[in-house]
């Protein structure tokens, strides 16, 4: 079936280091959404990308949607302890229209050592 | 104060009992979703509803049931047929299709012994 894979599953970084998580789909996606879940919390929407090759920035976070609309990345520059959590990508397979549902990746859990 | 609420936060049940998890939203969203999250895992879709009185099975619907009699409410029943019900259950809502962002509730952690 349709799958969205995220790598790595876990990442430990020293505060101040950069971090990147990658999201790869087996099929073309209409969109890609990114969510952050703090430990013990619930996912919170960060951003949506819909155009091929799209790049969006939110302060230290940079989101990219691949040219083929099958992959995406989230890059955090100079991590801080507030960045700790699990980052999920989710996409809607192209062609599924109004009846389609988002497929979530397994998430990347980021730990930041102060 | 708009949002999506789930209750209770923690729930304990004995094996063989059905249990219903509550989800309410006052965001006037058409679509609502139930996900299950296991430790170290992503979100798996149980059921979703895009309109009142209609709902569809997600990827892991076996052992679960839902109803959508009101726009604001989408309760989930975990039946005794669900073989491994202990998990963190998240409810979400969105304005419409999967092209809209989803707003998640705080979740219910269900433990069945």
Structural classification of chain A: mainly beta
Strand content of chain B: over 45%
Name the poorly predicted regions of chain A. Answer: none
| Count of helical regions of chain B | 0
Residue share in helix of chain B:
under 10%
Q: Structural class of the secondary structure composition of chain B? A: mainly beta
| Sheet having the most strands of chain B | 7 strands, mixed
Rounded to the nearest angstrom, the radius of gyration of chain B is 13 Å
Low-confidence parts of chain B lasting 5 or more residues at pLDDT below 50?
none
Number of strands of chain B: 11
Tell me about the largest β-sheet of chain A. Answer: 6 strands, mixed
Distance between the termini of chain A: 41 Å
**Assembly classification:** heterodimer
Order of helices and strands of chain B: EEEEEEEEEEE
Overall 3D form of chain B: globular
Beta percentage of chain A is over 45%
Mean pLDDT of chain B: 93
Determine Rg of chain A (CA atoms, Å).
14 Å
Q: List the helices and strands of chain A in order.
A: EEEEEEEEEEE
Shape of chain A: globular
Mean pLDDT of chain A: 95
Please provide a written account of the structure:
- The complex is a heterodimer of chains A (114) and B (113).
- Chain A is built from no helices and 11 strands.
- Chain A is mainly β and 114 residues long.
- The relative contact order of chain A is 0.33.
- With 113 residues, chain B is mostly beta strands.
- Chain B has strands spanning 4-7, 10-13, 19-25, 31-37, 43-51, 54-57, 64-66, 76-78, 87-94, 103-104, 108-112.
- Chain B has no helices and 11 strands.
- The chains are: A mainly beta (114), B mainly beta (113).
- The interface between A and B is medium-sized, with 28 and 24 residues.
């Amino acid at each position: 079936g349709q799958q969205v894979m995220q790598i790595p599953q876990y990442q430990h970084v020293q505060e101040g280091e950069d971090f990147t998580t990658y999201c790869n789909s087996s099929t073309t996606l209409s969109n890609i959404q990114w969510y952050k879940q703090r430990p013990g919390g619930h996912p919170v929407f960060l951003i949506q990308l819909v155009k091929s090759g799209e790049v969006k920035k939110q302060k230290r976070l940079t989101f990219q949607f691949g040219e083929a609309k099958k992959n995406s990345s989230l890059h955090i520059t100079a991590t801080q302890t507030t960045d700790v959590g699990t980052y999920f990508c989710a996409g809607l397979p192209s062609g599924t229209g109004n009846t389609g549902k988002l497929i979530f990746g397994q998430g990347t859990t980021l730990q930041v050592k102060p | 104060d708009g949002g999506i609420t789930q209750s209770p936060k923690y729930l304990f049940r004995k094996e063989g009992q059905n249990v219903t998890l509550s989800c309410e939203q006052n965001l006037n969203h058409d679509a609502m979703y139930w996900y299950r999250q296991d430790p170290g895992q992503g979100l798996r879709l149980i059921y979703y509803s895009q309109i009142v009185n209609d709902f569809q099975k997600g990827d892991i619907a076996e052992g679960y049931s839902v109803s959508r009699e009101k726009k604001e409410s989408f309760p989930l029943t975990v039946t005794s047929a669900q073989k491994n019900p202990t998990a963190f259950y998240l409810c979400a809502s969105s304005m419409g299709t999967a092209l809209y962002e989803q707003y998640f509730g705080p979740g219910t952690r269900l433990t069945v012994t």
